[in-house]
Amino acid sequence: xxxxxxxxxxxxxxxxxxxxxxxxxxxxxxxxxxxxxxxxxxxxxxxxxxxxxxxxxxxxxxxxxxxxxxxxxxxxxxxxxxxxxxxxxxxxxxxxxxxxxxxxxxxxxxxxxxxxxxxxxxxxxxxxxxxxxxxxxxxxxxxxxxxxxxxxxxxxxxxxxxxxxxxxxxxxxxxxxxxxxxxxxxxxxxxxxxxxxxxxxxxxxxxxxxxxxxxxxxxxxxxxxxxxxxxxxxxxxxxxxxxxxxxxxxxxxxxxxxxxxxxxxxxxxxxxxxxxxxxxxxxxxxxxxxxxxxxxxxxxxxxxxxxxxxxxxxxxxxxxxxxxxxxxxxxxxxxxxxxxxxxxxxxxx
Length: 349
Fold this sequence. Notes:
Shape: globular
Protein name: Pentatricopeptide repeat-containing protein
Largest sheet: none
PPR repeats: 99-133, 171-205, 293-327
Keywords: Repeat
Strand content: under 5%
Number of domains: 3
Structural class: mainly alpha
Number of helices: 20
Number of strands: 0
GO molecular function, one term: RNA binding
Mean pLDDT: 84
Pfam families: PPR (PF01535)
Order of helices and strands: HHHHHHHHHHHHHHHHHHHH
Low-confidence stretches: 1-7, 14-30
Helix content: over 70%
């Protein structure tokens, strides 16, 4: 009797094992609610759907996931993307624990929504509060960009001093952001000094310096000194073995337009043609995606049009793989600049 019971138990065990292994007895794996919610928030951002973002927030409340750092960060980011930074602040204030990534996300959102005062207040809270985490390298990079947008160079120097105290100014990304801030505020001596003191420089470092000099070259009437220095830096970048990227070329192209009458104007146009050849040889219009193709195309169209060679600009326009509103506007503006109003109206229609 005992032996029979053991045999029956063994049969039942084997049957259950076969049943579990059978493809006809498969179970659907449970979906992790956290991953599902993160995907919904990402989808709402990609599709620019405010309604889906609000529904995701409601679902996070029902599931009790509003305190999860990844969910909170995504919610803050989505609110700022939809131009609702004060809703993002409500999410931020509701968190019991706030890490550096969450603080940086809100700081970046304030900057994108041009909330300069709120950005500074959040930075002060991070720097002086015992509750919030201390600023890191990304915090300073974001804040330097915000200060560059505002043009408050004195405030930028104060934050610069704070980054030195935190031993973060030697970081290349922070240094590049700081150089860009000084360049946009018109303090080029400080930008150059910082550039010379950087222990390691990359392409973005040179771009920050070159764009600053391009800015003053365009705005300053007596710009012979800055023009000389600019092309000197361009040669220095090449001597260090660094190649231009799409940003470098588009920045330099803004200097190459001008009426093809004087020797200086012809020289500018010559530089522009050289940069155009560099784009083609190095595939800059292909390697950086379609957006780069359109942006560089617009810069070339503008350069050729200002040099009186709008027909060459039209050939650039016709060869663009994708034409957005900026490309069409650049070409129409080129025809208007060269007094070819019929062509401009035809292209507009």
